[in-house]
Specification:
About 70% of the residues lie in helices and about 10% in strands. The chain contains seven helices and three strands. Strand 2 (about 90) and strand 3 (about 100-105) form a beta hairpin. The longest helix has about 30 residues, at about 5-35. Pfam families: MarR (PF01047). InterPro entries: HTH-type_Bedaq_tolerance (IPR052526), HTH_MarR-typ (IPR000835), WH-like_DNA-bd_sf (IPR036388), WH_DNA-bd_sf (IPR036390).
């Protein structure tokens, strides 16, 4: 029978491998997909904003900041950069003139869709059907990990880099 300490030790190695590979994958995706559409590299926060706005179409800076676990000032800077690139636009909030909505533009949607197309092509060209199935199986646990609230140290690193 394995002790709880053995289980923690086994999971520590797995966690390190998952972290390393997800970090490499994320860096590779940023470099390959997003750089071809912008004059400079987009941060992880900016990429995440595009994904989120693709799903919901518009949000306030304060809500985007809360979702990404970064300061409002950091998010405002990220949104300004996306706006300069033509990927988002500001729309005055008619119910609160102190606030504005951030909306994704056609260029922002196209950038996000092109990134997904690039990954889809890489998956088809580089992975077997069994490996793609394994990714599908792993997606649920990865989504639970990515939505967890205990990862704020990771977001602080991104906050400092933005």
């Amino acid at each position: 029978m394995t002790s709880p300490d053995d289980a923690v030790s086994d999971h520590a190695g797995l966690a390190e491998q998952v972290h390393r590979e997800l970090f490499r994958l994320t860096a590779n995706l940023r470099r390959q997909e997003y750089d071809q559409f912008s004059t400079g590299e987009l941060t992880l926060t900016q990429c995440s904003v595009l994904y989120h706005l693709t799903e919901i179409r518009r949000a306030r800076v304060i809500d985007l900041a809360a979702r990404e676990h970064v300061t409002t000032a950091t998010m405002a800077k990220a949104v300004r950069r996306l706006q300069e690139l033509g990927m988002v636009r500001r729309q005055r909030d008619l119910s609160d003139y102190r606030s504005s909505w951030i909306e994704i533009t056609t260029k922002g949607v196209q950038t996000q869709q092109a990134a997904v197309a690039g990954l889809r092509e890489a998956m088809v060209n580089e992975l077997s059907a069994e490996e793609i199935s394994a990714l599908q199986t792993a997606l649920g646990p990865l989504q639970r990990l990515s939505s967890g609230s205990g990862h704020q140290d990771l977001h602080r690193v991104e906050d400092a880099a933005t």
